[in-house]
């Protein structure tokens, strides 16, 4: 399978990260896209670590998620300016990878990663929403007055974010349907497992395959983790646990477009 | 406060470093003087509260320089670790904040809170006890009534001073998220507690109900982009309070306008400086503390690199900005990586609102005089200050040649952070918490 053969040890990764962050701080020579990718990797690593915690720190998670969204938006605007995902833009993001891999599949994974990130953030924030919080949300979408005035140059727009998130979910919604319909017929376990909350077990299961986060490998893992949030039926969680390997191959085929 | 051109005349008188060993449970997590400054309370990570009391000043010819020193007055376990069985979470016993109530009788009252529960504690003295009961021995054993031949009236006799702390109210189960602030209202009947997304208003007498006055939780948690980081009541107007956010904004609310104060009366935000923009701009703009001035005219906010003073009448920018440790601006990526960028520093006013103080790394803390615009960096450490010694100003060298007494940015110890400080309400006495040590500094007499 794609990500497995080329893993780095976590300690090597941490060392290289420490080296990179001081390089970021000290050197002005690092190209901007590389800096951005570095920050993005750090953010995603942290979010990943927090997701493994029983009770992640809401304040930090929100700050990091906002940073990721901001970078994501910037990258999206840049890729909009470059209509074809080939040549220079890709080369630059290529050299940002911690490993140098020339595989074309990697490239396509980088493109998908935007939506994956949105879904990753969504799923993390959703998990932070405690089920037992009974008090009804009295304020809905912030009104115009309450909405903080964003400085113009952040480029963040709430409406776009919502569109992004919805778009991301739709993307994965369709994935989920197409991939799992064949399995639904085999397993008539919806009723039995409907009321069991297996979200804790999901994250436990998904942890081992998650090795040193570099965004492409995260991109492959994130679809698995977002399935629970996209579809409320817990039966699918169990399906996914059983079938993730073949799922992943299936996803790869779709991405590569064969 | 008198200030020399180069040095600040502050003498350090050491608190008896209490016998706390260097354990994580002893890390001081909050420091607060009471309204007269006679008492100083500290809370730690182990859920304990230690109250220090100032000695009565003895003006004698033998010891002209003796000022009242602070000695341990009372120690009690305020919060215990709890386990939330429903969510399988452990609730930390760490004391996040302590706030004193103004004194109304012989006893002292304070509020202490951990992540989930606020408690009202009564601290009272007992220095007399009744002796000479008829039906009881001195040991407390009951006497046989048929054996009593003589009646006597019990009398109060002096005993060794005993300070007891009793929990009078427990305000629980009102916060889903972690409580970061509590603030006593100027009406002395209500107080508020703020967590990441909500603020509740309590009456001291009622523990099973609270009013929710601010709720910024979105209907869909995926849309969450901002959390509440601190909140405080106005010192004089019991209907007004402010709360700060992780986006660097402050909202002032008036409770008279609506039951749910989601619509702010004033909104304080400084436009971003485009030349300082970085990936970490939003993270470092998150406000970690907000404090009203004693006069009630200004608010002070602390974000990662600066302290800002705002005039309540001007919302579009602060009136003063002070750089606490701007040399860290070029280290943000490393500080992000080791999570130091999320450290929450507090800030305090002095009694006359002329000087503000906040902490930094390497056990440094900074003071800014608002009138003279002078600032000083001091260090709270055992090695560098002996009792009664005058603190020497420190300096951080940013680049180039390092002078003899300076310390370079790369040598700073980021594990030694001063997050919590307090200033006596009327005198120049400050309390500085450096990890698990408490330092008390007084202004030099003469």
UniProtKB/TrEMBL annotation, chain A:
Gene Ontology CC terms, in alphabetical order: nucleus
The chain's coiled-coil residues are: none
Please provide an example of a Pfam family that matches this protein in its UniProt record. SERTA
Residue ranges constituting the SERTA domain according to the UniProt record: 32-79
* Protein name, entry field: SERTA domain-containing protein 2-like
Q: Please report the organism this UniProt entry assigns to the protein.
A: Taeniopygia guttata (Zebra finch)
Q: Report the gene name.
A: LOC100230587
From TrEMBL, chain B:
Q: Does the keyword Transport apply?
A: no
What the entry lists under SMART domains is as follows: WD40
Question: What's a GO cellular component annotated to this UniProt protein?
Answer: protein phosphatase type 2A complex
Keywords attached to this entry: Repeat, WD repeat
The Swiss-Prot or TrEMBL record annotates one GO molecular function as: protein phosphatase regulator activity
Q: Please tell me whether the keyword Repeat is annotated for this protein.
A: yes
Q: Which InterPro entries match?
A: PP2A_PR55, PP2A_PR55_CS, WD40/YVTN_repeat-like_dom_sf, WD40_repeat_dom_sf, WD40_rpt
Q: Belongs to which family?
A: Belongs to the phosphatase 2A regulatory subunit B family.
Q: What is this protein called?
A: Serine/threonine-protein phosphatase 2A 55 kDa regulatory subunit B
């Amino acid at each position: 399978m794609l990500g497995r053969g080329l893993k780095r040890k976590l300690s090597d990764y941490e060392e290289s990260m420490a080296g990179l962050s001081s390089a970021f701080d000290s050197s002005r020579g690092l190209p901007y896209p590389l800096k951005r990718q570095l920050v993005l990797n750090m953010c995603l690593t942290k979010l990943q670590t927090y997701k493994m915690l029983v009770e992640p720190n809401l304040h930090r998670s929100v700050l990091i998620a906002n940073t990721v969204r901001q970078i994501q938006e910037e990258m999206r605007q840049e890729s909009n300016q470059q209509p074809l995902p080939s040549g220079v833009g890709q080369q630059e993001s290529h050299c940002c990878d911690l490993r140098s891999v020339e595989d074309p599949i990697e490239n396509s994974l980088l493109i998908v990663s935007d939506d994956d990130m949105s879904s990753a953030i969504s799923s993390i924030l959703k998990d932070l929403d405690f089920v037992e919080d009974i008090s009804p949300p009295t304020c809905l979408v912030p009104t115009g007055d309450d909405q903080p005035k964003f400085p113009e140059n952040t480029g963040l727009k709430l409406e776009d974010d919502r569109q992004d998130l919805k778009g991301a979910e739709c993307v994965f919604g369709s994935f989920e349907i197409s991939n799992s319909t064949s399995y639904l017929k085999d397993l008539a376990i919806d009723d039995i497992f409907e009321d069991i909350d297996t979200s804790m077990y999901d994250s436990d299961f998904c942890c081992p395959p998650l090795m040193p986060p570099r965004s492409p490998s995260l991109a492959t893992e994130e679809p698995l983790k977002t399935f629970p949030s996209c579809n409320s039926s817990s039966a699918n969680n169990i399906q996914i646990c059983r079938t993730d390997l073949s799922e992943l191959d299936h996803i790869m085929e779709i991405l590569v477009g064969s | 406060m008198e200030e020399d051109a180069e040095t600040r005349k502050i003498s350090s008188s050491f608190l008896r470093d209490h016998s706390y060993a260097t354990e994580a449970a002893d890390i001081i997590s909050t420091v607060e003087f009471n309204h007269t400054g006679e008492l100083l309370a500290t809370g730690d990570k182990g859920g304990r509260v230690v109250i220090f009391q100032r000695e009565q000043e003895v003006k004698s010819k033998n010891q002209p320089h003796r000022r009242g020193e602070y000695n341990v007055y009372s120690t009690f376990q305020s919060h215990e670790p709890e386990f939330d069985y429903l969510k399988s979470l452990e609730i930390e016993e760490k004391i996040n904040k302590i706030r004193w109530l103004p004194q109304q009788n012989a006893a002292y009252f304070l509020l202490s809170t951990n992540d989930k529960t606020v408690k009202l504690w009564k601290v009272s003295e007992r220095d007399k006890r009744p002796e000479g009961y008829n039906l009881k021995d001195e040991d407390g054993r009951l006497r046989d009534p048929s054996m009593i031949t003589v009646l006597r009236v019990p009398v109060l006799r002096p005993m060794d001073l005993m300070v007891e702390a009793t929990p009078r109210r427990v305000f629980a189960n009102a916060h889903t998220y972690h409580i970061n602030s509590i603030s006593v209202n100027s009406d002395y009947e209500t107080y508020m507690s703020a967590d990441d997304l909500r603020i509740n208003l309590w009456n001291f007498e009622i523990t099973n109900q609270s009013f929710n006055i601010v709720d910024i939780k979105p209907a869909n948690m995926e849309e969450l982009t901002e959390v509440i980081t601190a909140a405080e009541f106005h010192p004089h107007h019991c209907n007004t309070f402010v709360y700060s956010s992780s986006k660097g904004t402050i909202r002032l609310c008036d409770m008279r306008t609506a039951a749910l104060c989601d619509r702010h009366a004033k909104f304080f935000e400084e436009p971003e400086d485009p030349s300082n923009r970085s990936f970490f701009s939003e993270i470092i703009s998150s406000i970690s503390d907000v404090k009203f001035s004693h006069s009630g005219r200004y608010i002070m906010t602390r974000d990662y690199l600066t302290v800002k003073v705002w005039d309540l009448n001007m919302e579009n920018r602060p009136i003063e900005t002070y750089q606490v440790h701007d040399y860290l601006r070029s280290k943000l990526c490393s500080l992000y990586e080791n999570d130091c960028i999320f450290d929450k520093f507090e800030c305090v006013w002095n009694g006359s609102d002329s000087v503000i103080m906040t902490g930094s790394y390497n056990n440094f803390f900074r003071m800014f005089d608002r009138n003279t615009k002078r600032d000083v960096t001091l260090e709270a450490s055992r090695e560098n200050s002996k009792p009664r010694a005058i603190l020497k100003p420190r300096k951080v060298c940013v680049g180039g040649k390092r002078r003899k007494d300076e310390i370079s940015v790369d040598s700073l110890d980021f594990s030694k952070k001063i997050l919590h400080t307090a200033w006596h309400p009327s005198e120049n006495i400050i309390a500085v918490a450096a990890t698990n040590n408490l330092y008390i500094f007084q202004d030099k007499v003469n």
